[in-house]
Amino acid sequence: MCKHILNAQVAIRSPCCRKWFDCAECHQETADHPLLQSFEMTFACKKCKKCFRKDAREFEESDEYCPHCDNHFVLEAVTPKPSLQVEGEDVRVDPRMLKDDRVQGEEQRSIFNVKDAADRLG
């Protein structure tokens, strides 16, 4: 599972060490050598788990799909984005921070206004 590209559809076999990686950053983090660049690329589809080769010099629009299951693997990368969130206890343990709109304050229900009831009753 790649932490750099969240929607990775294929794993790529590195030509230098012949290991499988989801992206070049994953190779850079784990390997002690630079990535050897090659036009002949070997992919493993994550949907059907089958391997196939593509030549990057002759890459066409039809080459954006797995030849076995037609999974579209050339997508715009979705990368994790930093976000600002409120830190607190787990709401499953301590639900006091959650506001439930169904719970309302204690409100007296009456057919007339309770606030001016004393004036009307005399």
TrEMBL record:
GO terms for molecular function: zinc ion binding. Residues 1-71 form the CHY-type domain. GO terms for cellular component: mitochondrial intermembrane space. GO terms for biological process: protein import into mitochondrial intermembrane space. Coiled coil: none annotated. This is CHY-type domain-containing protein. It comes from Lojkania enalia. It comes from the Eukaryota. It holds the Pfam family zf-CHY. Keywords: Metal-binding, Zinc, Zinc-finger.
